[in-house]
Amino acid sequence: MIPAPSELRTCNDCGQPVLWTTTAVGKRLAVDPHPAEDGNQACYRAQPRTWVSRSLDGTDARPPARWEERYRPHVASCTGRPAVQDPLPGTAPAAAPNVIRLDPRRRGRTGRKRRRR
Predict the structure, then answer these.
(1) If we measure between CA atoms, which residue out of 2, 6, 66, 63 comes closest to residue 32?
(2) What is the rounded distance in angstroms from the CA atom of residue 1 to the CA atom of residue 67?
(3) Cys-Cys link to 68, which of 12, 28, 42, 98 (CB 3.0-4.6 A)?
(4) Is the pTM of this model over 0.70?
(5) 3-class DSSP state for residue 7?
(6) pLDDT score of 89
C-alpha cells in the first residue's frame, strides 16, 4: 500500500517527502514514502491519514502480515542530516593518548624561589 500524496510531509533536513508513522509505544517515526524490500519497519494504514509501524528487528519480531508493507526509516536515507553527532554541551573531546593536560585552576611552582624575611 502506497500512501496518498496528502499523507506525506517534507523532511526539515533534506526536503524529501516522508511518511510519519506511530510506533507501538506511541513514538513518531518518519519512513521513506515507498515500500522497500530491505526495509525493517512493517507499516500499515490504521485509519485515514494514520499509519502504524513496528520494527522487524529483534528475536521476537514476527514477519510482516499480509496487510503490512516493509518500509525503510527515513533517517537511513536522509542526506541533510550530519553524519557525526555533535558533542554534548559541557563535555570535552577525548584527549590524545600520552598527552598530559594540566588543570588551569591549579597553581604549580613557577620556578622562582621565595625570599625569606
Answers:
(1) 2
(2) 8
(3) 42
(4) no
(5) helix
(6) 76
What is the distance of C-alpha 68 from the center of its chain?
24
Q: Which grid coordinates belong to 82?
A: 550530519
Which has the closest alpha carbon to 24: 76, 60, 66, 77?
60
Cα–Cα distance for residue pair 98/70, rounded to 1 Å: 49
pLDDT tens string 42-81: 999 998 889 999 999 988 889 999 999 999 999 988 888 7
Which residue, among 55, 97, 48, has the nearest Cα to 72 in the 3D structure? 55
Angstrom CA distances, 95 to 40, 75, 86, 103, stand at: 37, 30, 17, 13
Q: Are the beta carbons of 73 and 81 closer than 8 angstroms?
A: no
The amino acid that residue 109 corresponds to is R
Q: CA torsion 91→95→100→101, rounded to 10°? A: -30
